[in-house]
# Entry
Amino acid sequence: MKAIDFTRSFMTFSVRKPTNSARIQLDASCEWIDEKRGERDTFYLITPCKSETMYKAGKLFQEPNYDFCGVWSEREYLIMRTHAAHERDNREVGLNRDRFAEVKLDIRHFATTEPLASEKAIVEATLRGDLITAVTEIRDEKRGVRAVMEYPIKTMNVDPKAMRFQVDTGPVAWPDFEADADQTVARFHRAFTVYNTFDKAEFVIEKPTPIGGGEGAPHYTAHYSDIREVAAQNRLYGVSNG
# Structure
């Protein structure tokens, strides 16, 4: 497998008014495979940044501030603007050609990777300080759809005595198989994943989450609170020369 080197992979979008090009590092990818239609496409989750005004002499951070993040493919985009209060949140979906002067995906791969097919191999690679990348595949048999998520392991737990491992990492691009969406990119949400076996995974997905409100209507904020456990195929790879 030619694993993605996310530290050297970027999405760059350019706009005309005002003129600007933003190069943003990638956090994760997800290949969406519709077996019934014979279609597939790969989507890339970018690293979040904060809302700002561009190239001014005064204060640059916008108020109220929000997280700017998104998912891009060669054709489609999803921009996620996430505020402290959910009622200000905004998800913008469209085609790259209608929104941007140019969108460029620079995907770089590691020259070689080593499959880590056992708990022992994972523990040893972790303790050696090797870079580790992972692929998690999930599927919806009823809809005939698969999603192959790829992401770097940023947090890994190991027990060298028992030769056990536990991944706890993210964000990843979580695909909602059940979403009613005209464009595939609209299905995606940010999530974190945890697992200690090769055949299942848990995801905690970002969603509007109530945070109280007294006697009135509850207030909501975007938070990782929707926990799902799913059957999955988890494959891990080590990069000793990274």
